[in-house]
Batch of 2 targets.
Target 1
Amino acid sequence: MGCAVSNNNVVTTSTHVIPVPIASNTKMSNIDASHISTASNKHTTNILIASHTTQQTISETLAQKIVDQCLSCYLLNETTPQSLSARANAIQWCDVFVVVVSRFYQRTPFCMEALNYAKDRHKPIIAILAECIFRPYGALGAILASAIRSIVLSDDASFLHAVSEIIASTRTEMITNKNPLNVTDLSQINDNDMMHTFPQGSSTCTVLICTADDGDSVGRLIHESLLNTQLSLIVENLSKPDATCSVTQCTVFMPILTPQLEQTPLCRAALEQARFHCKQIVPVIAVEKWRPEGWLGLIIAGRVFFRIFDQETANKPFYDSNPITNLRVATEIACQPFPSETEREAIEKNALQIELDICKSKLSIWPPKRKSHVINSMKARQPVRVQLQEPHADSYFEHTHHSITRITFKAPPAIVDQYGLPKRKLLDCMISYQWGKQNLVREIYEDLRMRNVETWFDIWGSMQGSTNDAMATGVECAKVILVFLSKKYIESTNCRLELQYSVQRGKAFVILHTEPNRALQQWILEAIEGFPQYDVYSYDVLKQLINGVPMIDVIVQAVRSLAQAQPPDPVDDCSAEIFELRSLLDDARDALSAETGEMRYRTCTRCGQQYDNYLKNGCKKHSAYYLGGGSGLLEDQWVCCRQQTTDSPGCISCEHIDQPRVFVEDPYYGTSTWKPA
């Protein structure tokens, strides 16, 4: 890493002026500015309804009924208003953020950006569930798990019920919310501040580092640090006279976020251009103890961003990495070609069509009898609670801790791919914790890793793209949530959201209390009731024996036993077209099973779970042998994972089976194993 770069390394770009692209606005029928509250009435109640344009009719109907009740209402979708400041101000203006939930809302970045910002601004959120065959997932599902109210729209009568619930919930929030930080100047909720012309630079680059004067030194530092990546880099200071911006010519746009950048109109216009042209944005905050809250806060809402203030913070060690290295990795990932949703789903669509053709050729009647795929979005999934065996060991069964680095062992598996998109990988558990406990968490993760427990938590660069999406994907993929409860965990908005979404998805819990004498809210007590709980105030506690078994092994066994008992948690992460093809294939396979008499759903002879014969993944087997016979110096155990019983859950992924199994002893070595494994 070098020192600050000289002025000669910064590319100067030529200027020509181009019009700013303007998307077509969607008008708000029967809703005009007179229905939006003014600052003169401090008792006015402000409601914002956010939706995708495909649900605009629903939004307008709700808005008109709300206005008829003498409340103020504003509509926001992916195109209206356009300017960043107007969108941010509209969200700040509202007392309650109402979101009309749909597949299109889930899959539209500008819609999710608004919801993430509402969450960051601590706005009370009300969910209007407008599609009966869609269950929200990812960041949308996670944020809605904390909604103050969820309402299903099914018919005209439900509109009146929805309006009544919205108004009642809003008024309750107005009473309990003592200090709302709302924008009250209506002139701030319009597109009048957008630049009608944009001073476009002509330089072509891979990475454009955009800065103002107060972030210039950090921009140059990053430029110097990324030179060895062989990427084409330029730095543009947009606070200079006659400044230009080459945002349309770059692949990755890296704004250096500072107070001056937030106040510079050209910087805001540059970010609006980056959003409009779907550029990959990698934000860097360059001012210590500062975070943007206005339009710039909207840009980073839900995003992974970096904090680099100077050479020292850029290279400050963080385990086996540092901020500038993590920024370099994120930048290189962002430079890769990003497939469209259509391209990403084309492979699955073709695979589904092949399977449908096979079913069609075998069935006597086509199409098959269809069954309802309506989802009860109001009903939370329920976890399976199990009675755990009392720990017991008669022979030597001590605990030895092994430290892990990226050089010697694998880091937690990435929960998102190189594009920041969710990867559906079955996990035994996800670790949910507050960052202040990371040293303890890391040590316990190392023990889990040594025992072949597939675990994920957000360290070592596994977080890419949207932080809320990554968190939600971890919850969705995990069978068990290992929670490190502390005072700061309970007080943290993000930790609380993580726990609420885990409850909504019906996850099992193993609770580690990391501090004594801590009061828990009633909903938390209800969520963790009946699940194993342990007091782990320091790492040394894990070495203590419970009936001869180290506490860490007791915890691991609890995780495994609970994970094996949990049913699959399917995620509806697709377009309406793909969902219809999946549903049709499901119906076709049911029809084929009925015609042939061949059972589709069977019971696994290894784990006891029911499984779909077309989808056999989700089971576990042991990767090594069982050592013991009750007379050795060492405690009987599977050498691959230290579990003590012969029929304990497996430790590596495999397919379900329905063949009979036999436990076979090798008399020569004194070891045993299952056949088939």
Target 2
Amino acid sequence: MRRSTLIACLLLFIAAPAFAQYQPAPQQAPQPAPQPAPQPLPLQPAPGGPQLPPSSRRIVPGASLAGINMGAGINLILTRFGRPSDLRETTIDTVYNFSRWGIVVYIQSGRVSAASTSNSLLKLSDELGVGYRVEDVLKTFGRGFRQGTVEGFPGMIYDDQGVAFGLDRQGVAVVIVFKSNTASQVSGLYPGGPAPQAISGFPNVAGLRPYSAETNYFSLPGYLRWIVFHASGIWITYAEASRVVQEQQAASR
């Protein structure tokens, strides 16, 4: 017994240095799975530039003023500018005055025949508009104009270019745009002064086609009532509108 115990102790004494030199290999912490490198997003084709609507502050001789195109329907004008501050019927056209905006629109047969402005925000270019001088007009359009009355002001009328300038002393007080070579059909350019007032005082609808887009799909009396309401806030009776339309049609024959 004592002998076997002694042998066991001797074996432990011999093996101890070997156990002391043995160190278990350190366990490595689990590494996260490698993430794929981020891929750059594909480049989107650059747009060809923003599609901007026509500027509402631009004056285009013979074509448009403040986005009002020559030939546009009266419905579009009323929808955009609301009720006019004044409505005047002449023997040539119907004149809608939107004084809040400094804009006047001339209507013939339900369509825009001319438009004018006294608003200095509206410009033909960076070098010409209301408030600029006669020299600026001559620099841009030259001397191929005729003298005449432009909405009560002495002015310069460029009939072939569809634009006219009313002058207050040496400055531009009003600019009016119309289709080329139609100055004689605009009451604001009437030779010798404004065109005379029409007898009835109502917009002339006799030349319009009833139940069509130009009358907002109303009958002629119905369309007349609608126009008068938007101009004055008053509904005239259908009977009165019918009488006015009949008188206008008789006068146009």
